Amino acid sequence: MVKLHNISIGKKLGFGFGTVVLIALVLGITGILGISRLSDDIEYITTNRFSDLRSLAGLNYLRMSIRAETLEAVLAENKPNRDENLRMILERRKNSWGKIDEHWSTLLSVPRYMEKERQLVEILKVQYQSWRKMHADMDRFLEELLRSASDDRKTALFGEFRTLVTRLLPISEVMGSTFDDLTRSNNEQTDLLVAEDLKRASILEMFSLLAMIVGVFIALVMTLKISRSIVLPISSAVSFLSRLREGELRENVPKEFLARKDEIGTLAQAVQDLTEGLRDQIASMKEVTVALASSVYQISASVSEVTAGAEETAVAVVETTATMEEVRTTAEVTNKKSKEVAESAQQGLQVVQKGKSATDALFDGMKHVGERMTSIAETIIRLSEQSQEVGEITETVEDLAEQSNLLAVNAAVEAAKAGEQGRGFSVVAQEIKSLAEQSKQSAKEVQRILRDIQKATSAAVMAIEQGSKAVEQGAMDAIPSRESIQGITKKFVESAQSAAQIAAANNELLAGIDQVTQAMESIKAAGEQNVAGMKDLEEASGGLKEMGQKLSLLIERYTM
Amino acid sequence: METNADAFEQERMDAVLRKRAKKLSREFLKEGSTDEDLLEIVEFRLGPERYGVASLHVGEVVPLREHAIVPCTPPFVAGIINLRGRIVSLVDLKFFFDIPATTLSEQTRVVVLRSGEMELGILADALVGIRTISLLNLHPPLPTMAGVRSAYLLGVEGEDIAILDGARILRDESLIVDEEV
Fold this sequence. Notes:
The complex is a heterodimer. Chain A is an all-alpha fold. Helices cover 93% and strands 0% of the residues of chain A. The two termini of chain A are 43 Å apart. Chain B folds into two domains: 1-30; 32-175, CATH 2.40.50.180.
């Protein structure tokens, strides 16, 4: 016998389940065959037998109904609403014909396997045809009755109808008995078929029960056997692995499992490999953990140092930022001052330019005064010359007066010589003399005045000369001041430009300081982040340390 | 205004002339004096002193324009002048009256004394004018004046005018220079 330990679990399971499936298959096929036979019979009974019986019952009922109608039509002759009744009867008969035709065709379509039934159907056909023919005649009479107007005709027709009815009744009775025969035959056949089927079903039931009991027994045996061969080693593996989990690494997998050639053997080998591998790994991990612990310690120390450094840097950055703020404040003050200086320089420049224009005006004024003075001097000199001429004229006048005086004297002398006759002439001469005297006096007066004028003009000329000299001196003196004002203007322009440049430079400086401040803020933020990061790192390194300790604890749990 | 001032000046001048004419006419109509007592003189200046000479002896008075100094003549001869073609000698009377010599000037005049053929120029420092004096007011020369001076003087009119005797000067032989060198 083949050892169960050397068959793979798949094959074992396949064998077990295969057996069970085989039993189920036999059972199922038997059931299916029996059931299909039963269902065929039931279908046959339902479709043939039952419809046959339904049609026979329907035809019999309709035969009786038609018969009643016919009799009612006979009775309707003496009723007051005869025509009305006849019409209704005719209507109902027509409806019944449709149903009768339907049942008749169904009856004919049912297959007949028994000889007796076939004969009965042939008889029924003949009876049915004669019965139908007679009824068709009756319908024709009824229609004519309705159509005819004269009572005699109607009475005749009723008479004929009554004879037809009397002929019909025996045929109808015969057809009714044939219907009953056919029904009976059908019932007998059906009862036989059902009894056969019931017998077959009981055999099938017995067989199924037996097969089920055998199948359950086999399945139980197989399950027990296979599960024992799988569950035992697996539970032993579970206990081995749980000991492994506890840290027991010294144990090895039992030889009996390793010797097996099924999946359990493979599993045992794998667990053995795992144990050995774990042993190696734990040994390496122990070494690594020791190294890691020392590294973590170093990292922790370094991180602490760096954190301290980062904190110091952050403090320094904060101080630098504060200093930058002070510098910025100072720069703002300087900027304000330099702007003020620039404005002052501008104002000074304006003042100096005013001064320059004033000195220019002064210069021009002095030049103008000089020109005027020169012109005045020329005028006075001309006046002096003219007064000289006047003096010459007065000298001539004086001379003339002197000559007149002399002439007067001479005339007086001549008059005296003339004696008494010359007395009048003497008076005239005296008068001339006095005029001459007067002229002389006037001329002297004029000369005196001219002398005064001369003196005055000389003084004026002198004064003008001095004035001109003074003006020239003033102009000369003004030149250096003008030059110095020009120099000052130039200097002021330069200083105003310099002040403007300083103001601009200060503005740039301020912008630069702003940028530096911003940069310092960024550095500060970065430093703070750094410190935070370092703190995190410190914590992380602490965590790492803790983890290292935990790891070493974990590893120490393993016994090798 | 100017015309008014001129008019005023003219009026003033007229007034002065009228006054003077009245004064002159009064002098001529002096009380108690006759024509015989009156003497018309030509008054002139010699240095600081005033002298007069009767207009009868005076030919004319001319200004001294050009004169030629004649060499080898006595000191009182000042030179000669050309009077309308005639040569007239000039006598400086200051030499005789001990009056310091003066320089010639514009005022210097030549009083030409004339009597018949005799003509003589007296060098006067300035001409004063014609004056009519009364002989009654003529005083004899001061006794301090002697010699030639007193010989040429007619008298002293009033306080300070010495009246020269023109006829005598014209006649004086000593004034005629006639010598050959």
